[in-house]
Structures are given as C-alpha cells and as structure tokens.
Amino acid sequence: MRTITVLSGGHGGAKFIAGLLHGISAGSLPGVSPDVQVTVIANTADDLWIHGLKVCPDLDTVMYTLGRGLDHERGWGRTDETWSIKEELEAYDVPNTWFGLGDRDIATHLVRTQMLEAGYPLSQVTEALCRRWLEPLHGDRVRLLPMTDDRVETHVAVKDPDLAASPSGLKVVHFQEYWVRLRAGVPAEQVVFVGLDEASPGPGVLDAITDADLVILPPSNPVVSVGTILGVPGVREVLRATRAPIVGVSPIIGGHHVRGMAEQMLASIGVDATAAGVGLHYGARSAGGVLDGWLVDETDAGDVAALRTAGLRADAVPLWMSSDEATAAMAAAAIELVTR
C-alpha cells in the first residue's frame, strides 16, 4: 500500500492523521509501505473572510497539527500564542472579535490573503504554506489539498427571537458564528452550503481518490466537514468508482460526539446521532453509498450487526484518540477491516 487518501475536517481528522503517520513511522499498519504517500483532502466550507483576512480553519488545523505547531489544549491555533491584536481590535470596538485571531496565527492569514489577492488559487497558496509546515518533517510524503479552489461557505439557520424582522422566524449565520459565538448552543434548524453545488474539485482531488490504494473517512463531522467534501460535484462519483477500499471511523461514541457539534448538525438533517446512524448515512458502496467498512467504538458493538446487514464491513474497537499510539491502533484496525 503506497498511497492513502484521507477526507478530513479539522481537529478530529487532523488528530487521526497524526496517529496514522505515527503508525506508518512505527511500521504498525498492516500492508502499508514505510514510504507511503498520504494525501489529505480538507474541508474548506468553514472558511470565512474576517477583518479583511481569509481564514481557513480546517486547512490550518491540519497543517499546524502535522507540522507540530498546533495548540492541543485549545484544539486550534498556534502554540505559544499571544492576543495583542485581538485586544486592540476590541479596544477599537471592532465587530466580530468573537472570532479570535492570535498574533502568530495572523501571519498565516496575511500570507494567504496577499497571495489570493495577487491571483493565486487556494490550492497553490496552501502548497506554499505547507513548504514551511509539512516539508521539513514529512518531505513529499504528505500533501494537503483544499477540496476546492472555489468559495464555499456553510451557513446555519437558527430561530430568530425578533420575529418582526424575520417572517420565517429564522435568521442565518455563518457556521463560524454558530460554532464560536453561539457555541452551537441553539438548535440548527437548517444547514445551507453556499456555492457548493457550483464548486469544482480542487487540483489533484479526484486523482488522489482514483489513484489511492486506500481512502479513509476519519472521525470528522459527517455533515459540515466530510459531508461538504462529499458534496463537491464529482467527489461522490469517484469514490464510488475507485478500486481502493474505503473505510470510515465513527465520530460518535456512545451516542455523543467526542468534540464539536456533530449531534446538532446530524439533527438538522434528520440523521440519528449514533455510530450506526452515521455509518448508514454514508452508506455502503454496494448500495450506492461511499463506504466499504465502518469502524465503531467498542461501546457501540451492538450496532455492528445492523451495519453488516446494510452491506458494510463493521467492527468495534476502542476509538478514543488518547495518544498517537492509540490512534495508530485505530488506523491499523480500520485498514485491516477492509483489506483482510
């Protein structure tokens, strides 16, 4: 196995990929070559423009994590961060300071914004940023690709207490406002993906799936992370057609998400927030879905029979990513599930 492609969101996906790379280095992944190339296709529908800067939260979380620059306590942003610029913006009473940009992190957004405004597509900008973060540690064995170069944004409809201003009783906020300012504390009535239907896959995205020896859907949000990647026109089709086995890892353990707001997002599309619910939502390739195998936590072992009945290979193993070693063991179990 010489090529692995991962469809990733932010924190959960990045943490899984770090464990996957640890397993590769340790030689603990069955059938995986030590010089395997890992390609990460990252969600960009969380992106936003704020304070005049283009911010790509999932791309940056993957890049910082694999480049050993992520603040793991917060789960986002840079290590050894300071917040002078944020404090100065607050002193000027600038809107939207709820989205905190650290002083070190801002450098990434400045470089990205300058390159975009100079005419470079996001894929080339990401490649340039990764020369600092990924090449020194991984050489050419790890690639990070945005799912699209086109602008796609996720918006969430929530109830509006000012009914006079909104005849529908709803207002729409950017996903980052829902997650960061509102802390996903109100029900998501609807999730809207602006521009997704018209987006084109980024350079290398379809080839990375078609040419892979293995495709992994890590424990990222199935609606607003992996779901948006699957929503890029052409991606589902190549997933169904690739000769590579496709395995997913549940982000739901014991009926709850480990981190984030998967429960709220799943409720908005009418999918049960269970390991089986998410696996069946993705579906078996033999029945028109995108998976061959689905790994659930041992807590959810009772879901395995239903998943197998639906045409999926399924097993239950420990899924808590408590260390790189534990996560590498998850990756090994996922690989074994679809290659044995």
What is the strand and helix layout of this fold?
Blueprint: E1 3-8, H1 11-26, E2 37-42, E3 48-50, E4 53-55, H2 57-66, H3 84-91, H4 103-117, H5 122-133, H6 135-138, E5 142-146, E6 153-159, E7 170-174, H7 175-181, E8 190-194, H8 205-210, E9 214-217, H9 226-231, H10 235-241, E10 246-249, E11 252-253, E12 256-257, H11 262-268, H12 275-282, E13 293-297, H13 304-309, E14 313-317, H14 324-339
Helix pairs in contact: 1-2, 1-14, 4-5
Detailed description of the structure:
The protein has 340 residues and is of the alpha/beta class. The chain has a 7-stranded parallel sheet, with helices on both faces. A hairpin with a 2-residue loop joins strand 11 (252-253) and strand 12 (256-257). The longest helix is centred in the N-terminal third of the chain and has 16 residues, at 11-26. The chain contains 14 helices and 14 strands. It is globular and about 60 Å long. 46% of the residues are buried. It has helices spanning 11-26, 57-66, 84-91, 103-117, 122-133, 135-138, 175-181, 205-210, 226-231, 235-241, 262-268, 275-282, 304-309, 324-339; strands at residues 3-8, 37-42, 48-50, 53-55, 142-146, 153-159, 170-174, 190-194, 214-217, 246-249, 252-253, 256-257, 293-297, 313-317. The mean pLDDT is 96. The chain has a single domain, classed as Rossmann fold (3-Layer(aba) Sandwich).
